Amino acid sequence: MNQINVLDQLTIDKIAAGEVVERPASIVKELLENAIDANASSIIVEINDGGISYIRIADNGEGISREDVRKAFLRHSTSKIRTEADLNSISSLGFRGEALSSISAVSQVEMVSKPKTQDFAIRYQIHGGVEVDFSETGAPNGTTFEIRQIFYNTPARRKFLKTAMTEAGHISEVISRLALSHPEVSFHFLNNNQTKLHTAGNGNLKDTIYHMYGREIATNLLPVSFDNGRISISGFAGKPEITKGNRSYETFFLNGRYIKNHIISKAIEDAYKDFTMLHRFPFVVLNIEVNKEAVDVNVHPTKMEVRFSNSSEIYDGIYEGISTALHEKELIPVVEPSV
Ligand code: ADP
Ligand code: MG
Known about the structure:
31% of the residues lie in helices and 25% in strands. The protein contains ten helices and 15 strands. It has helices spanning 9-20, 24-37, 66-72, 99-105, 155-158, 164-181, 205-213, 215-218, 262-272, 311-328, and strands at residues 42-48, 54-59, 108-114, 121-127, 130-137, 142-148, 186-191, 194-198, 221-227, 231-238, 250-254, 257-258, 284-290, 295-296, 307-308.
C-alpha cells in the first residue's frame, strides 16, 4: 500500500487556489471586492495582455496596517468575520479569507498598502506563496496590488487560459458588474493603456448605466421601486424596445452581490412576457435587498450562487416590482405573432 502523506501548506494553498482563481478575471473580482470592502471611493484597474501578464489595482481605501500585512495573505484569515455566528449576517463582499492566499499561491504579487493612521506604507512581495520582500516605503493612503504572471508555477492551469482578448472581456464584465452595484465608487479601467470604462462614482446608477451602455439604453429606462417589508427592489427596467437576443442585459444584485439565479431571471422574464417577443430578453439592473437571514450566500467559493429559504416570495416580489414599473408607463403589450 502507498504511504499516506500530509500535504505541506504551499501545496494545499496551490490546490485550493484553483477554486478561487480560475482566470485573470477571478483575480480582478477578488481584488475589487476587497477594495470596495475597504470603503474605497476610487479604484483604478489596469491590465496588459488580458491580465495574463499584468494586473494592477489601486484603491484609496482603508489600507492594511504593518502588523496585518502578512496575516492578510494567510488562508482563512479575514478582518470581516470573527465567529461562525457572523456567517448568518454577512454584509461585506468577502468573508472567506481565501483570496489573497489563493492569488499569491499561483502568481507573483506585489502589494503596497498604507492606512491613514500609519505614516509609511508597507511593500510586500510574495511569489508562489513565498515571501520575497517586506519593507517600508512611501505611498498615498490605500492599497495597490500588482499581479504578474498568473499560473506561472501551475503550467497545467495556464494552458486553459484563452486569448488575451477573451480574458480581457471577462475582466471587463467583472468590472461592469461591480461598477453597476457600486455607483458610489469611481471605476477607471484601462486595457493596454487605453481607457475602456470610467464611471463618475457620484452615486447615481443612471449615470453609471450611461457610462457603460451609452445613451440609447440610458434614455429608455423605467425606474423600479418596490418594498413589501421583506424584499425591496430598486433599479431600472429597460423599455421593451431595448431587448436583446440573450440574457447579457440582465444584471441583478442580491444584497449588493452580483449573482446568477434562475428564479430571479424567471420572475423578470415572466413580468416582461406581455411586452416582448419570444426569445427576447430585457435590460434590467436591479438591486434586490432581502433579510440577510433569508438567504445563504455561503454556497460556493465564488459566491455567485445563493440559496433562498423562501424562493416563491422572492419570485413574487420581483415579478410585482417589474410589472408595476412596466404598467405604470402604459406601455402597449406586444401581440405575439401566431405561428
Ligand atoms: P476576505 O476578503 O474574505 O476577508 P481576502 O483574502 O480577500 O479575504 O483578504 C484578507 C484580508 O486582507 C481582508 O479581510 C482585509 O482585512 C485585507 N485586505 C485585502 N485587500 C484589502 C484592500 N484592498 N484594502 C484593505 N484591506 C484589504
Ligand atoms: Mg476578499
